[in-house]
UniProtKB/TrEMBL annotation:
<dbReference type="Pfam" id="PF02141">
    <property type="entry name" value="DENN"/>
</dbReference>
<feature type="domain" description="PH">
    <location>
        <begin position="1820"/>
        <end position="1924"/>
    </location>
</feature>
<dbReference type="InterPro" id="IPR051696">
    <property type="entry name" value="DENN_Domain_GEFs"/>
</dbReference>
<dbReference type="InterPro" id="IPR043153">
    <property type="entry name" value="DENN_C"/>
</dbReference>
<dbReference type="InterPro" id="IPR037516">
    <property type="entry name" value="Tripartite_DENN"/>
</dbReference>
<dbReference type="InterPro" id="IPR001194">
    <property type="entry name" value="cDENN_dom"/>
</dbReference>
<keyword id="KW-0963">Cytoplasm</keyword>
<dbReference type="InterPro" id="IPR011993">
    <property type="entry name" value="PH-like_dom_sf"/>
</dbReference>
<comment type="similarity">
    <text>Belongs to the protein-tyrosine phosphatase family. Non-receptor class myotubularin subfamily.</text>
</comment>
<feature type="region of interest" description="Disordered">
    <location>
        <begin position="1328"/>
        <end position="1375"/>
    </location>
</feature>
<feature type="domain" description="UDENN">
    <location>
        <begin position="6"/>
        <end position="465"/>
    </location>
</feature>
<dbReference type="Pfam" id="PF12335">
    <property type="entry name" value="SBF2"/>
</dbReference>
<dbReference type="GO" id="GO:0005085">
    <property type="term" value="F:guanyl-nucleotide exchange factor activity"/>
</dbReference>
<dbReference type="InterPro" id="IPR005112">
    <property type="entry name" value="dDENN_dom"/>
</dbReference>
<dbReference type="GO" id="GO:0032483">
    <property type="term" value="P:regulation of Rab protein signal transduction"/>
</dbReference>
<feature type="region of interest" description="Disordered">
    <location>
        <begin position="1103"/>
        <end position="1124"/>
    </location>
</feature>
<dbReference type="InterPro" id="IPR005113">
    <property type="entry name" value="uDENN_dom"/>
</dbReference>
Amino acid sequence: MARLANYFVVVGYDLDNRVEGEGQGRILQRFPEKDWEDSPFPQGVELFCQPSGWQLVHERQPASFFVAVLTDINSERHYCACFTFWESLDNPQLKKNEAGEADEADEDLAVVQPAQVFAPKSLVLVSRLDYTEVFRNCLSLIYTVHVDGLSAQLETVIGNLLTCIIPIAGGSQIDETPVCSLDIVPQALACDWLLACLQPSPEEREESLRTITLGAGDRQVIQTPINDSLPVSGCSVAQLFRQLGIVNVLYLFCAALTEHKILFLSSSYQRLTDACRGLLAIMFPLKYSFTYVPILPGKLLEVLSTPTPFIIGVNSFFRSETQELLDVIIADLDGGTVTIPECVHISLLPEPLLQQTQTALSMALDPELEVADHAFPPHSVQPSALKIQDKEIRAVFLWLFAQLFHGYRWCLHIIRIHPEPVIRFHKAAFLGQRALTEDDFLTKVLDGMAFAGFVSERGPPYRATDLFDDLVANQVERIRQEEACPHKVMNHIKELAEQLFKNENPYPAVAMHKIQRPSDNGQNTSQIQTTFPALDEVGVQLFIDHAAARLKNAPPVVKAEIKSMVPSGPPLGDIVDRNSNVMANSARRLEVVRNCITYIFENKMLEAKKLMPAVLRALKGRTARVCLTQELNQHVLQNRAVLDDQQFDYIVRMMNCTLQDCSHMDEHGIAAALLPLITAFCRKLGAGITQFAYSCVQEHMVWTNMQFWEAMFYSDVQNHIKALYLETDGGDQQNNSVIVSSAPPQDGSGSRREVSALELAAEQNRLWLTLSKELQMERVQKEESTVFSQAIHYANRMSYLLLPLDTSKNRLLRSSGLGDVESVSNSYVTNSIAGSMAESYDTESGFEDAESSDVANSVVRFINRFVDKVCNESGVTNEHLKALHIMIPDIVQMHIETLDAVHRESKRLPPIQKPKLLRPTLLPGEELVMDGMRVHLIPDGREESTGQMGGPPLLPAEGAIFLTTYRLIFKGTPSDPLVGEQIVTRSFPIASLTKEKRISVTLSMDQFVQEGLQLRSCTFQLIKIAFDEEVASDLAEGFRKHLHKLRYPQHVQGTFAFTVGQSAKLVLEPKAKDKNQSLKTLSKNLVKTAKRTINRQYVTRKKYSPPSVENRSSFQSELDEDEISVSEEVDQGALTLSSTIRSSDRQTMSNVVERACCRDYQRLGLGTLSNSLTRSKNEPFRISTVNRMYTVCRSYPGLLIIPQSIPDTAIQRICRCYRQNRFPVVCWRHSRTKAVLLRSAGLHAKGVVSFFKSPNAPTAVPSQADSTSLEQEKYLQAIISSMPSYSESSGRNTLSGFTSTHMNTSESSDKLRQPKIGDLMKQVLGNKDDVPGTFSRGGKWGSIRGSGRLSAYNPDVGTRLAGKESPQPNGGPSDPLFLRQQKAYLYIIGDKAQLKGGKQDSFQQWEVIPIEVCDVRQVKNSFKKLVKACVPSSPTSDPNMSFLRLLEDSEWMALLHRVLQVSVLVVELLDSGSSVMVSLEDGWDVTTQVVSLVQLLSDPYYRTFDGFRLLVEKEWLSFGHRFSHRGAQTLGSQSSGFTPIFLQFLDCVHQIHLQFPMEFEFSQYYLKFLAYHYVSNRFRTFLLDSDYDRIELGVLYEEKADRRNPQVCKSVWDYIDRLNKKTPIFYNYMYSPEDEEVLRPYTFVSNMKVWEFYLEETLSEGPSYDWELKGRQERVAEETAEKPDTSAPKSQRHIVWPCYDSLNRVMPDAITKLLQDMQNLEVELGQTSDKWKDTWDKIKTTQRTETKLESKASFSSSLLMSSNLSHQRRSHGVCLQEGSVRSSINLSLECEASATSTPVTGRQSTSTLYSQFQNTESENRSFEGILYKKGALLKPWKPRWFVLDKTKHQLRYYDSRQDKECKGVIDLADVESITVGTPALGAPKNVEEKAFFDLKTNKRVYNFCAQDGLNAQLWMDSVQSCLSDA
C-alpha cells in the first residue's frame, strides 16, 4: 500500500525577492510540514512549477496542468503534478512597479491604464506514484472548490487527499479472480466492454480501496495495475509515434539503449512528460538508469552539457540555447524531426530484426497501408483506439526484446545461492551463440547500465514473474516459426497488447467518475475572483495524524507475493545453427581432425604429418575447434596425459591454431574448453621435470583478457556449487551427471535432462526459509569456501598462462601489455568493472624491464586484481581475501622456479621436425657475413609457386636466409610435406636491393604472428621472409643493419667487386672516419691536374670547392665566372704530348690510345693517332687530346673526335655552352653516306638564344657570350663542311635524290615497310593539322609522349621533312608529287623545353628537332611500378590490379617506344645522308640510349660480341653514364634511388632482337646476363661514373686478370669470353647477318613483348647468371629465350615445373643437345673434344658447300635445324619451327634474296639430310620439290612438299620434306588440264609471273606457284607427261 500523495504545496510569486530582475517563486504553504521518513520532500519544486521562469502578465492566462518528474539522490522518482492559475495583484505599489516593468517588457501594453497585473500561483501534488489523470482531477477539484466557493472545506479536501492510501498493484487482498477478465469479452467489443461490466459484489472491500473521494461530492476510481513491474503508459507511446514517426522513434529507442544523450523539445510541458514516459515504456524490460528530467527549468539548462547520458525535455522557448550542443540527439515533438549530430553514431538493431520491427509497427499504426492498393479494400480497416494502439506498439517492442534476449538465462552464472543469489552474465558466450559477436548494437546494450540492472533484477531464479519472463521462456518457439509471416506476428502482438491493456485497466469503472469542474462564471469572471486563501495548517495536520493513527491500529495488509521458479526457455544452441552456416561441409573436416588426433596418439606420425595442413585449415571453423577439444578430452586420464616429444609438438600446434582464431572474448568457449587440457597434456623433459602444454600456448590475447578469466571462474564456481547441492541432496539424484567441464552450461542439454544450476538455486531459495539457522550458516560457509578454493585454483591457472617459459624474455607482457587497464579489460568492459580496476595500476604499464622479478610483479598484480574483483562480487570473507593476497606471490614465485628448470631442459631438446639448414654454394671469393638464420619464405603475389595454377605448392618454404658479401640467399625446403624433398632457392645480389620493409606475418602452421621482412630487388626478385621464433629479435635487427651496410657502402671500394677475396670483416666495419673520402681524393687530384695544365695564378685566385655529388661539373666550369677565359691563357705549345705530360702520365696516355674506342674510331675512318700526333690534313676529323687530363670535361673520355679545322683552344670555349661541359663530339660515321652522329649535353640556358641568332644580325661590341656562340657556329659549320654531300652539287642535295637512290638498292619488301623520314619526324614531333602542304598519314606510330600529341615546335621542320610525301596505308613508298624542298645537312635533336625562343639558321644548313624526353624521375617511377607488376608482393583478385593493367599503368613500354622511335628517326636521317647531333638532358642518360641504339641499328658490327662490348665501353662507360649514381651503389647516392637507364637500353635491344633474330651474334641470354650483372656489383665494369673516376681508383687499366686470384674476374667482358669458349650459352645459332643491313624495327607498343627477364624464376637453383654455382655435370648449353618443345619423347619421365626447373637445362634446344652429345661421345671415346665453336663452324662450312653443289630444282640439301624463333625473316632455306606461334622461318645460310617465308608446320627433327631416303623410295617419286599452293577460300598460300608419283598416278603433298604422313592427294585421273596461271591475291611476293600455273580437276582448280619460271615449266612438263602416259 502507498500514499496517493506525499505532499501538497502551494507555490506563489515572490513579491519581495527578485534576483537580477527576474521573478522568483516561493513555497507559500506545504502540508505536511514535517518530512515523511520514507520519502523526504524534494528540493526545487518552485523551479519546476514555472519551468520558463516566474513572470507577471497583463492578461489572465487559462489554468494549466502538467506533471514534472524529480529524481532524488537515491534515484527515486517524485512526480510533481503542477496545477497553475493566475491571480490579479491588489498591491497598488506593486501595480506601479509592475506597470513600469511591463512597459519595459512589452511596449504595446504601456497604453493599458490602469495597469492590472496577474501573477501565477501553483498547486502542487508530490507523489511517488504516477497517476496523471487522478492528480489532474484532484487538483482541479481543489481549484473548483476555491473558485466556485463550494460548501466543502479546502482543508478537508486536502486532508483527505494526503491521507488517501491505495494499493500499489492489482490482485485483490482476498485471493480471487480479477474484477473483469478480458477472456469473457468478445474481441469485437475491444473498447465497449469497459462500459458493460458491473462491479461484482465480493470486491466491495477491494473497490473501496480503489475508489477515492475527497469529500466534495466527488468520486473516482484509481486503476492500479495488476502487475506493477510492467510500466503504465496510457496513450503516451502511441502519441510519441504519431508525433515523430516510426523511424525516428526507432532511432531514439536505439540511442537510449546505447547510452546517448536525448533532448525533447516541445512548447507543451505535458507532452514532454508523455514523450519521455513513452520512450521509457518501450524500453521495458530494461530500465533507464541515467539522468531523467522530462521537464527541465530554464534556469538549469547548463545540465545539458553533462558528460553522462540523459533523457531531458526542454520547452521550445529555449531552442536557441540547445543549438551548440554537439553530441545531443534533439527530438522536436512539435515539428516531428529528430536531429542526429555528425559526431554521433547510433548503432541500430541487427537485421533482420530491424526490418521485422518496422513492418510490425507500421501494421499497428497504419493498417490501411497494406490494403491501400487493393481494388476492393475491406470496409473496416481502422487503426485501433489510441489506448489500444499504445499497447500494440508496446507489444511490438516486448516481442522485439524477447527475440533479442531469448536464451539469456542459459548464459547466467549463479555463483552464490545463499544467503542471497549472486548472478553474473556471460556476455561473450551469449554473443557467440547468437552469432552476433560483431553486432555493435547488442554488444553496447549488453555493456550498458540498463542491462546490468536487468541481470540483477531478473537474474534470480526464484522470484515473481511477469509477461516478459513468460514470453522469453515459452513463446520463443512460436516467435521463431511466425517471424516470416507478418499476419501471425500481428496476431501474437494483439494478444500481448490485450494483456498489457488488461494490466493497466483492470477495472471498468468509467461510470464511477464524478468530478466537479469549475462553472463558467468561475472561469471567466476575472474581476471578482479572490486570491487563493491561506489554509489552516493545524486542521490539515489533524487529518493527517488521525489517518496515521488509524493505519497503525488497522491490521497490516500483506499481499502475498507469488514467487516461483523462473523458467529458462529453450537453450541457445539449437537456435543458432540455422542462421550460421557452421555446419556446412564440416562432417568431412571433423573426420580429418578426429583421424589426425587418433594417428597422433597411436604414434603414426607420418600419417599425422600428411593430415596436419588439412587439419590446420579445418580448424578455422568453429565446429572443428569444438570437435578438437572434445577429442582431446577423451585422451586425458585423471587430469594428466604424458606424450612423447613429437606428439606433444603436434598437439601444441593444433592448440595454437585453435586459439589463434579465437577472439580475445572467447565467445564460443573454445579457450575455456582448452584451459583444462592445456594443464593436462605434458611431456617429460628429464629427471622429474615435466613440461606442460600451457608453456607453449601463451601467445594469445585471450589469456590477458580479464573478462575471460572472470567468465571462466564463474562458470567453474557454478559447477562446483551445483555439485555441492547435488551431493547434499542425497542418493535419489546420484545419477544426475554433473558438468565439470568449463564450457558454459548451455551444452548441458543432453538426452538425459539435467538439473540446471539455476533450477537448483531456485529450489534452494524456496527451501531457505524452512532451514534452521545452523543449517543456513553451514550452507553459506560451504559456498564461501568453494569460491575460495576456486580462487586459489585460478591464481595457479593464471600464473601458468601469464608467466612466459623464459621469464627473462618477458615476451607476453611486451606484446599485450598486461600492465595497462585498457588491454586487460578489453573494450567491452562495463563502467562498473572499469571502476573497480582503475587502481594505481596503470602507472607501471610504460616500463618493460626484462628482469624476471618484473614479470613476476606484473603477473602478481594482474592476479591480485582478478582475485579482488571476483571475491568481492561473490562474497568471500575479508580473512580469506587477505590469505589469498599472501599466497599469490608465493604461487607465482614457485611457478617461476619450476619454469626455469623446464626452460633449461627444453633448450637441450633438439628442435623437432625443423628441416636441416642447407648451406648455399658460394662463388670463389664470396664469404658469409651472417650465418643462416631460420626463416620461412612466404609466398608473394606470384601464383606459380604456390600451387594455385597447378603444380606443387613450393611456397611457403622453411629454411634459412644467408647474407654473404655478394648476395642474399634463401635456401630451404617447401613446408608442404608432399613436396618436401625439393630444394627451394631464391637469391639476389645485395647491390640490387631497392626496398626493404618490415612486415608481420601469420604462418598458417604455427599460427604465431611473426616479424618478417620484405626485400625487393631490381633483378625482379622479391624475398618475403618471416623469422622463425628461435631467431631473437636483436639478431633479426642485426641482420637488417648488416644488410644496409653492405647495400650502401661508404665508398665504391666497399662493393663486392673490390672486396672480393678479402675478409668479410672489412666490409662490415667500414671506417666511419670520413664520409666524403672519395670526394677529397678526387678534389686533390683535380687540383693537381689543373695546376699542371693551367698557369698557377688562376688557380690561386679562387678558393676551390670540390664538386658536389649531384653536379659533377668539371674544374673548367668552376672557373667559368672569371672575366677572362682561362683556356686562352694556356700556352700554345702545351698541346704537344711531350711538353705537357710527365713520364708517368705518358704511360696513361698510351693506355688511352690503346683503348678500344680508338680502334673503333680507326675502323670508322674518323682519324688516326700516329705516335708523333701529327694530323693528316686530308682527313675531315681528328682525334684530339684536349681532354687527356679530363680538364675540359670530367665525364668525357680522354680522346675525342672533333672536326680537323677546330683548334683545341676553341674547344675550351665551346664547352662552356653545354651542361656539364659536354660539348658535341663525333661518335660514329655512316660508312656509305659519310654522315656523322654527334652527341652532347643540352645547352646551358644562357647559350640558347645566342646559339640560334641569325648570323647576319648586327651585333654591338662582342661580349663573351657572342664570341662563344660564334665559336659554336664555326664548330657546327666545320662538321657540316666535313660531309662529302656538302661539297657535291646541289642536285644531289634534295631528299628525293637521296631516298630514290637508296631505296632502289633494296629489293626486299621488308625494307620498304617503314614510313619515310618526314612521317617519322611528324610522329616524333606530333602533327599539326594547320601546317600547309603536309599530308595526313595512313598509320600512326603513337607519339613520343605517352599521352597526347606534341605540337610541332616548328611547323616548317615537319613540312620540309615530310617532303610532301603521302605514304600508302601499309607504309610503302609513295610517288613524288612534285619536287621536294631541300633538307638540312645537320639535324639537332634537342629537348623541347630548352629550345624555346631560338631562330632557325637562315641558310637551313642545320635544323633543330625539338622532342620531349622522359626525365629520370619518370623512368624511376615507371620502373618501380613495373617491378610491382611483375613481382607483386601479395596476390589480389582486384581486376584493376591485374598484371596487364599494372603493366600498362607503369608506362614502361611507352617509354621504350619513345626511345626506339627517336632512334629509328635518327637512323633514317643518317641513312639519308644528313648528320645528326643528339643533344638531350646532361648527355649521359637518354642521349646515351639513343646514340647506342642508332649505332646498333645502323652498323652490323655492333651486333657481334666484340662490337656490342665496344659499343657499351665506348658510349656508356667512356662517355660517362653515371652507373654508380643511377644504381645508388654507395651511401652517397642512396637518396637518389635506383634509375635503370641501362636496363631500358638492354630492353630496347631485346625488342630489336625479337624482331631480327638472325642479325645478332649474341643470344637473348647474353642481354639478360648483362642486365643482371650491371646491378650485381660482381664485376668492376659497371662501377663508377666516368673514366676519370676509374683512372683515379686505378681500375681502368688493370691487368686482365688478377695474378693472385685467377678465379676472380674483374671485368664482365673477360668473364663472358671465358664462358663463351666453354659453352654456347651466349651464342645465337640463327646468326646469319646480311651485309650492311640497317635495321628498322617496329616501335609500336603492340609490337613489343614483356621481357622474360622480368618474369622468369628458377626456384631450383636461383638466378642462372653466376655460372660457377652450377655443378660440372649440369653445365649444359642452353638458349634461354626458347620455350622447349615438350612433344619430344623422353625415356625417363620427369615432370617439369615452370617456376622451379630451368627449362632450358631440362629441355635444351636441338643444336645445343647435339653439340653436348658429340662432346660426351668424344670424351667417352677418349678423343680430345673440339671446342663447340669449331664444331659449329665446320658444320656451317660443309653445309654451304653442299648447297652450292645441289641442283636448283630441289631444295633437299638444306640443313633443317629445329629451333625456336619468334619473328620472320626475308630469306629461305632452313625451316625453324616455333612452339608458341607455329610460324616458321626459311633461313638460307648464303643470304640469298628469295621468296618471303610463309608458315610451315612440320615435325621437329634433328639435322638429317633428305638424301638418305632417296634410294629407298625413288621408284615411287618421279619428281618432287616445294610448291606454294593456294588454300581454300580466304586461306593463305602455303609452301608444301609435292611428290609426283607415276606409279600410283597421283600428286601427293606433305607439310615438309621429312614428313612421312601425306597431307593430301590429287588423283591425276581427275585432272582435266594444266595451264599457265596469274598471280592471285596474297600470293608470295617477289616471284616472277611465269612461276604460277593452275591445275584443273573435275572438282576444283588448284593454283600453284613454283620458285621461278623454270621450275614451273619443269612441273608442268612432268605432270603433262604423266597425263599423256596414262
